[in-house]
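Hi R.,

Here's the chain you asked about this morning:
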Amino acid sequence: MALLERQDRLIPNIAVASSKCAPKVTDLLCKSDHAHEIYAAATLMYPETKMKYFDENWTDPKTTAKWKKVMLIKITKLWKVSI
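And here is the predicted structure, written out as tokens:
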């Protein structure tokens, strides 16, 4: 019975917490959309993936394949500025 009583209190608390954190999560996701260069740089620098990841996964000629060259140019600029 004690478990049921805790669930009655816990579920509304989770709903409140979820509704309060949703705007912050949305804000962080929007900011991460602008950090894709950092993700690409990290993927390129990771020894097991490097450019192989992009060559194997960015293959659609209408979308991702055309962005590989753009991504490499941006990462190169980022690299030169950072070092």
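One quick note: Residues 76 and 82 are 10 Å apart (CA to CA).

Cheers,
M.
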